[in-house]
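Shipment paperwork, digital attachment
Item: protein structure file
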Amino acid sequence: QVQLVESGGGLVQPGGSLRLSCAASRSICSINVMGWYRQAPGKERDQVAVSSGGRIDYAESVKGRFTIGRDNAKNTVYLQMNSLKPEDTAVYYCYADIYGRHYWGQGTRVTVSS
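Attachment content:
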């Protein structure tokens, strides 16, 4: 079991950057799958970036702009978001899969607007 707490969201202008953090309540060393999803208003929750056993998968829409990272010593997963676009506006959720059980954070809102 794990609790996940996201932070780092906010309002940013198009072309700007944000770094989201996901703090876990326990060591993430043994958590094989962790990542980020997002849900825009009126849309379904979609995968953004997932780290699984050393493999990283990005949504096509964020490739080259977003980078996921893990700091096992700090029990934290990051999402560095560059060159943000208005279509990146969404609530971003941290995700963990522990032996098939899915865990979600409460979400952090990102708004990209001028």
